[in-house]
Design a protein that fits this description.
Length: about 210
């Protein structure tokens, strides 16, 4: 396999005619999941609005994008991680320094859900066990354009996410369905629900013990 070295891609500003004096807030996100589930395709669709139709195994790609979400400016620093197990030590570093995590699987691949997602979730919780801060997790079922080949039902994924205390979304990098919502809702989830008045009603925020 051809391996790509670490890249950082800085995209143009996106102000959406928002208030010019709004303070920018930088948020680090990590996209996790098994190989070939569409982590890079989702990230590049969100950043550049193009579909990445060739699978090129990632070691690490870093992307930055400025967005306006609910009249607040955020700079999103998105890490697209390797799916292969030999890079698990590298993932440890990403997880340690981040507070927002997408667990991505492909709805047409049973192993990506039943094995890879659970492995990544265990990795997050192991690393964050001694972290005094809050962090957010979202389960993402990608490739819903392959509905006819679906192996993981929506109900099953929703039940798993609910049992673990985080939300579930379905997306398609090919059609762009749910992609922006995935990233924007993650920001809202951590940004808004970690205020003290909201913590009691935020089961999808994992508090370290």
């Amino acid at each position: 396999k051809r391996k790509r070295k670490r890249k950082e891609r800085k995209m143009g500003r996106q102000n959406n005619n928002g208030p010019s004096n709004t303070l920018e807030e930088e948020l680090k996100m990590v996209v996790l999941g098994g190989g070939g589930v569409g982590k890079s395709a989702l990230t590049i669709r969100f950043i550049q609005n193009i579909f990445l139709d060739e699978y090129d195994p990632t070691i690490e790609d870093s992307y930055r994008k400025q967005v306006m979400i609910d009249d607040r400016v955020h700079v999103l620093d998105i890490l697209d991680t390797a799916g292969e197990e030999e890079f698990s030590a590298m993932r440890d570093q990403y997880i340690s320094s981040s507070k927002m995590f997408f667990l991505v699987f492909s709805i047409d691949c049973e192993m990506s859900f039943s094995s890879d997602v659970k492995d990544r979730l265990a990795q997050i919780r192991r690393i964050k066990e001694d972290d005094p801060g809050d962090y957010a997790i979202m389960l993402v079922g990608n490739k819903i354009d392959l509905e006819k080949d679906r192996k993981v039902t929506r109900q099953r994924a929703e039940e798993f996410a609910e049992s673990e205390g985080f939300p579930y979304m379905e997306t398609s990098a090919l059609t762009n369905e749910g992609v922006e919502e995935m990233f924007f809702d993650m920001v809202r989830m951590l940004r808004d629900e970690t205020h003290p008045q909201n913590l009691a009603k935020a089961p999808n925020i994992k508090r370290a013990h």
